[in-house]
Amino acid sequence: MTSAAEQEQLRAQLDTLTTEAFRPELAEIDRLETVEIARIMNGEDAAVPAAVATQLPRIAAAIDDIAERMARGGRLIYVGAGTAGRLGVLDASECPPTFNTDPDQVVGLIAGGPAAMVTSAEGAEDSKELAAADLDALGVGADDTVVGISASGRTPYAVGAVEHARRRGALTVGLSCNAGSALAAAAEHGIEVVVGPELLTGSTRLKAGTAQKLVLNMVSTITMIRLGKTYGNLMVDVRASNEKLRARSRRIVSLATGAPDPQIEAALAAGDGETKHAILAILGGVDAPTAARLLSESDGHLRAALKAAQA
After folding, report:
1. 94 annotated active-site
2. Is 192 one of the annotated active-site residues of the chain?
3. What are the pLDDT digits (tens) for 59-73?
4. How far apart are CA 126 and CA 121, in angstroms?
5. Confidence class for position 241, pLDDT limits 50, 70, 90
6. Alpha carbon of 51 to those of 4, 46, 83, 203, 245: distances in Å?
């Protein structure tokens, strides 16, 4: 339980945050027609990509450093509380089916643990010690990257995670939606996407959440492109774990090679359903074992493996 003085200090901190600012022009939004509220909200959302655009050089610099470490076997670890934590877990959970990553390669930590994904655990966000313990449980080290996510940029769980990870030698990124944030200051790469006050005062699951989602999409997707998980704009490492994804895998091989269906089916069967192996076998004119070897030698980069096959 916080004291009255601590509560007053926290209130003073919130009063300085752009994401917490009150907008008097929207004070009677509840009296508007539904379509008008939707129109205002849609207009608010339209401003988010422009705010993200101001941070593209910082985002790109972070991605290059993340990819360098992941190429050495490091992990990408998202850390946050509440909405920010859920967005990190969401992005991490999409990587195995999309890029065929191991489940422990991209990890999402949320204050309060997995149960906090569906049940609010707001108190957990106040503990830097909890963040340190969660990272220690993963054995965070020098090849890893820890991305702290917090709309306010002051959440102790996110700030504590970045501080602790930096002491452990990991690369650190701080993603917030307020300028001059403690989170960005604590990280090697500070990314501050200032989207302004929310439609509902302090409801940072709105514009701030959208901004965080856009940045995390970039971080994971472009990192995987740098790691050779794509061929052009095709998801050649997609894990065909159900009928939809198996159909997508066949379509990707078709788009990449232009080969007839029987040749595609044969290449996929010979390569145990691996999309990248099938493409290399067809375009490089090699058998499945050779395709597997060339991809291994090129660290999974299909273009490099194709060059080697055609040499």
Report:
1. yes
2. no
3. 999 999 999 999 999
4. 10
5. confident
6. 36, 10, 19, 18, 34
